[in-house]
Amino acid sequence: MKIAVTGATGQLGQIVIEKLKERVAGENMVALVRTPEKAANLGVEARAFDYTKAEELAGALEGIDKLLLISGNEIGKRLEQHTNVIAAAQKAGVKSIVYTSLLRADSSTLSLAGEHLATEELLKASGIAYTILRNGWYTENYTGSIAGALAGGAFIGSAGEGKISSAARADYAEAAVVVLTSEDQEGKVYELAGDNAYTLSELAGEISRQTGKDMPYKNLPEESYAEILKSLGIPDAFAGAIAGWDVSASTGDLFDDGKQLSTLIGRPTTALSEMVAKAL
């Protein structure tokens, strides 16, 4: 059985490849990437795979049995790109697709949800066996801002006291590997999130504890937070999206206490304290 991973040089994809190598022989793995030369360090076969080049995708999927479709990173273009991949998988005879979706994509107010849910519907109608991994937030989405928060003297956001059940990328990558290498996964939809939820105030408190510096959390109106992000060089549309995601977090869209992720990977998800320490 040959397994392919899209976006294999991306932040999630690289971890999936490394963890998959622990369970699958290298000759049975394929890294699907835009630029194969950049995948030389992965130690597995790399094939050119650009979601936008629909006419080339089926050839790259030749001989693939299982496909991990890691969602594209171009917001607003994902559905078209995913449509291309699913159509190519049908043409190439791929037997199973595992897709990285969004936590509770069918009810979430996050602006990301629409394209994920539409992709899920495409998969269900494709005739290909599928498994959907509805991934919650990456803890790195917040710990990546710690250096800037320390420089600015406060951790800022618009999430209020919303609880966030995030997990490390490595946790979600391990879940994908478990599903890819297990039987009886067809048709399953997993709601994946971290074991222990926190607020951004609690994240700021953990930063204070580990650094010995006072780190308050400053909750801002959505528009004000977006303007600050723009002033830091983040493109206008993306700044607005980030602020909007925080507002969705404030209403509970990033909270989940089902512990399906830790159950799937057979261990607790990575603790917030560990992720903060790693970022410092």
Automatic annotation (TrEMBL):
Signal peptide start and end residues: none
Coiled-coil spans in chain: none
Superkingdom, natural source: Bacteria
The protein's name: NAD(P)H dehydrogenase (Quinone)
Domain NAD(P)-binding: 7-181
PANTHER family: NMRA-LIKE DOMAIN-CONTAINING PROTEIN (PTHR47129:SF1), QUINONE OXIDOREDUCTASE 2 (PTHR47129)
Pfam families associated with the record: NAD_binding_10
CDD domains, sorted: TMR_SDR_a (cd05269)
